[in-house]
Inverse folding.
């Protein structure tokens, strides 16, 4: 068993640490250098040959230390892992996947379509995509200084991630049955937070939610270049797919497990309905139209403290604006090099 070297202190997130949430299911929180201070890695331990990890943190040394120590508290090592499932290809969920694969040679599963982001976003194609993303930000009003900071952040993230070879990743399909350890899981495509986000329902009612359903916070639903054109409508479809599932316990990608999947799905739908109405009201108050940057400023206000906040807010605002446009409640046109939205 490999744990943290003597003399080193593991920095689990503040007031948090590994816990066995139900028998054979461990939550291992790993730190994040963002406003969202931690991400969850789950160990599903059905004994030798049946040990599955769900997601893999960001990839910083502190994440590796926390993962190794969390596994040690559960009595196993990385070499004992038999399967790794990645719910989606955001950096705080894929960062240690290459390390886990190198130590265990465990097969890696993602939903078909999502695995492509490992190369197009975080691999060799990342620079080309960043150029397109920068142009998206520009035409939607984001100032030059905030765009430049975003380019640096993206390159820094790509250096942090430790990704596996693409041929180590196998793909799953929506509605597929897969056996992991002693249990059968149903795969569920839940787009919105990412285009091909994966949720899993275990045969005993354990629901692996990734970032599709989170307690206390709302998942970011943003519009990005190369992505599906109406992510908020996608997200509503994903909420409908899971809200009536017979889930007894939800394992989210952030914060602690919780009960009440249907209630939380309804709350998230209500939040985004309200945000869409707020977006519509802002457009209605500006008869000449507004670009997404200024709409985001009115929606989020003082909560936008840095460049990362602004980029996430702009992407989420665009998702709401495009949702309104697809519903024929708003219109869009280019004016003086910017995309302008107004009430239809």
């Amino acid at each position: 068993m490999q744990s943290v070297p003597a003399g080193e202190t593991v920095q689990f997130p503040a007031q948090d640490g590994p816990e066995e949430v139900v028998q054979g299911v461990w939550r291992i929180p790993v730190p994040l250098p963002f406003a969202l201070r931690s991400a969850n890695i789950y160990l599903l331990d059905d004994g030798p040959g049946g040990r599955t990890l769900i997601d893999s943190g960001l990839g910083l040394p502190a994440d590796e230390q926390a993962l190794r120590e969390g596994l040690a508290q559960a009595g196993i090592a990385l070499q004992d892992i038999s399967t790794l499932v990645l719910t989606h290809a955001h950096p705080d969920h894929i960062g240690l996947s290459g390390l886990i694969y190198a130590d265990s040679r465990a097969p890696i599963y993602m939903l078909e379509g999502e695995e492509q982001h490992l190369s197009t976003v975080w691999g060799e194609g990342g620079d080309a995509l960043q150029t397109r993303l920068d142009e998206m930000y520009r035409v939607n009003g984001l100032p030059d200084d905030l765009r430049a900071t975003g380019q640096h952040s993206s390159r820094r993230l790509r250096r942090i991630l430790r990704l596996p070879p693409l041929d180590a990743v196998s793909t799953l399909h929506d509605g597929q049955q897969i056996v992991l350890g002693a249990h059968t899981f149903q795969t569920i495509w839940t787009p919105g937070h990412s285009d091909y986000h994966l949720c899993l329902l275990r045969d005993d009612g354990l629901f692996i939610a990734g970032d599709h359903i989170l307690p206390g916070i709302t998942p970011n639903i943003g519009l990005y270049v190369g992505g599906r054109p109406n992510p908020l409508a996608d997200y509503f479809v994903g909420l409908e797919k899971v809200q009536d599932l017979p889930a007894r316990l939800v394992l989210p990608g952030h914060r602690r497990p919780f009960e009440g999947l249907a209630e939380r799905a309804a709350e998230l739908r209500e939040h985004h309905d309200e945000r869409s109405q707020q977006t519509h009201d802002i457009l209605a108050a500006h008869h000449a139209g507004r670009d997404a940057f200024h709409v985001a400023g009115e929606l989020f206000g003082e909560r936008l403290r840095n460049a990362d906040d602004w980029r996430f807010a702009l992407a989420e605002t665009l998702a709401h604006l495009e949702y309104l446009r697809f519903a024929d409640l708003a219109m869009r046109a280019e004016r003086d090099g910017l995309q302008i939205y107004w009430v239809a």
